[in-house]
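Customer ticket, subject: "Can you confirm the structure for Histidinol-phosphatase?"

Message body: Hello, I'm evaluating your service for our small team and ran a test protein. I'd like someone to confirm that this is what the system normally returns, since I don't have a reference to compare against.
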Amino acid sequence: MKILSKGGVRKLYFDGHVHTPFCPHGSTDTFEMYIERAISLGMKGMTFTEHAPLPQTFVDPAPTKDSSMTHEQLGKYFDTLRELKKYYRSKIEIFTGLEVDFIDGYEEETNTFLKEVWPELDDAILSVHFLKVKNNYFCMDYDENVFRDLIEQSGSLSAVYSLYFQTVKKSITHSFGKYQPRRIGHMTLAKKFQSLFPSNFSYNNEVEEILTVLSERNMYLDYNGAGAVKPYCLEPYPSNWIIKEAQKRKIPLVYGSDAHSAKGLGQGLDQFVSTATLTSPLLLNRAE
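Agent reply: Thanks for trying us out. I re-ran your input and got the following:
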């Protein structure tokens, strides 16, 4: 782990959460467009973390069925990054990563997948996008209409928040053995539509439990700028008070733009806690 920024005037040195043209719900911007933009921003490194293929027996609940790349695309994804690493090695350090979904009930298939791709990975994020309610799965961040349906099926907004945080905690405490992603993605994604569905309840206990298990397992947190540019959220994931609590526990924070286009690199950074210390990720297949 390298400490890259200790607050004050914020300069971006590393982006640990970047999507690619392999994302079916993203842009058509090329890898080169992302990389050249990163270089122009003064970055020293970046991790491409495309949405990993979903378990083959899992039916994508997103209305457009476009949550991730396919299993058939994986080989080309890894090959492309291998070539780009060589080409740009004198200008910027590029890491090969994936954003892997934790889906309640599909842990075994996810573990098998991680074992298969592990030799290719420098970095990985474990995220929760799908919530299970009454044996049905919802892509909770798809849009406000899906989120409204999720609330109705769950019974209340507080039930959605509780289920989300329980699932995030489960993603941390579930053992993937030696194939454990070391960073948790956008841990307050449930707040994506908060101005439409404002909360009037406390979820502090759930957050405290998550931070405790993160600290106990020496895991990292994705300090995600995407929420700051979402029109119904307008704050980073997680919220500032959570970042301050994470810092007290010395949980490492890795900036992630969660960019789905080259122009998204660096987004949200201006709304980060000014005293937050940002680091580079813990690389999976290397001794640090």
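A couple of notes from the result: The helical segments are 31-40, 74-88, 107-117, 144-154, 157-173, 204-216, 240-248. The first strand starts at residue 3 and ends at 5. Feel free to reply with more questions.
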